[in-house]
Structure formats: C-alpha cells, structure tokens
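Hi R.,

Here's the chain you asked about this morning:
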Amino acid sequence: MDVDWNAELVDQLEWHWQHQLRPRLDGLTDDEYFWQPVPGSWTLSRRGQSSAPTSIGAGEFTLDYASPPHDRAPVTTIAWRLAHLVDVFGPPTAPHFDGSLAGHRAVAYPGTAEAALRQLDDGHDAWIRDVRHLGAAGLAQPQGAISPPEYADAPIAKLILHVHREVIHHGAEISLLRDLYLWKGSRGHL
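And the predicted structure, written out as tokens:
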C-alpha cells in the first residue's frame, strides 16, 4: 500500500489542532494570557520593562529570552508559549520552504489574548497551506538555508515533524496552564 506522507503529516497536526488544542484556547482572557504561575515567569513585556537577559520582538511587546539558554528552563506564561508557537509556525505572509525565511526575524507580539489567538491561527493556516503545497516529493528535499547548518542536508519532513512536535508539546503546556489558572487559590477537589 502506498502512503501519502504529506497527507499524513497534515492530518497529524490538523486533528490535534481541531480536536484538542484549538478548542482548549477558546475563551482565553487577557488575565490568563499574562498570568504568572510563579514569580519571575518569562512572558511578553512592554518594551524596555522585561527582567529577562534578552528581549526580542518588533512591537510594543517583547518576548523574554536568553542566549545561551539557562541551565534550567524558566517557567513561562501562556503569552510566552503562544508567542513561541507563532515563531515556530513562522510568518503567514511568506513561503516557509523556499529559503526566504532564513535567519532571525522580528515579530510584533500582541498584548491581548484575542490578538494572540488571531496571530496563532494565521500562522497555523499558513503553515498547513505550505506543507500541503510541498506534496510528497517536497518532503524529501533538503532543508538547506531554511534551517541551521547542521540540518541543511536533512529532509524537510524532519523539520515538519519537529514543528508538529513543538505545537503538540507547547499546546499541552498551555492547556495545563489554563487548568492551573482555573484552580489557582482553590483547595477543593472535583
């Protein structure tokens, strides 16, 4: 039996997106978006107000960051996780697999949950469009300039699997943060 690997990769993310992650994001409030589960959580901060070693972003809000990364990963807010997923998907206005996205790009991160979800949806939609456009043959093409040099010879399929793993992983973290926010300050049980 022939397997359409492009269709399988699209289905993997689309099923997760439509049935697990995206429904869990409905109703996200600004308070949840910026809620810090522990003091000093990495988040989005107004430009010039971050306490992180580095801040990246093109707009009023910047993403807390460190390079090289800390020995222990910092706890993050939903705002930070959503911004990271936007970065993972890449910009919705440029083709993902033609090399034009090589290098760091500046993103204008939104200061509201509603705007962040729109930005995330746009990134997801563009990603899926471009993965579909690759077809089966495109999955085997080398990553080349779209990835760090150590992955230049790896197939684009490897990059797609990595992005999907990131979306599933960080989406689960966002879902847990929403659960913790809902129960914060409560001592009751279900």
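The longest strand covers residues 61-65.

Let me know if you need anything else.
M.
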